[in-house]
Design goal:
With 131 residues, the protein is mainly α. It is built from four helices and no strands. The protein is flat and about 110 Å long.
Amino acid sequence: MKLPGLPKFELNLVNVLNVAGAAAIIYLVVILGQTITKNYTLNKQVSDLQEQITQLQDQKDTLAYNIEYYKTKSYQEREARAKLGLQMPDETVVILPAPKVAPTPVPESPTTAIKKKSNFAQWVDFLSGKS
């Protein structure tokens, strides 16, 4: 029994090669996609690691600079004065008393005077042009 509208399929060498070729192409496309994805993730990791290397190098340079600074005579003298209260042999230390600050009275501003008036009085002043 032959069904109308359906193509007749014959199993021959050309059809088998076409199906095998299509399967091989699909397989290669899948492998290519996986390779591209793997390369992208590896490149992302490499760029992240290079950024970390740069940051660590900057930190290393800063620490090396700080070490050299801490070895200087001026830093050691400054810290001895600040933390230990030491002084040079020919120096005289003068301790000044802290100035006493008296609280200054705040003068009454015009805006606070207006706020003390009642609402009605403020309207009267506004409408009469006194404000």
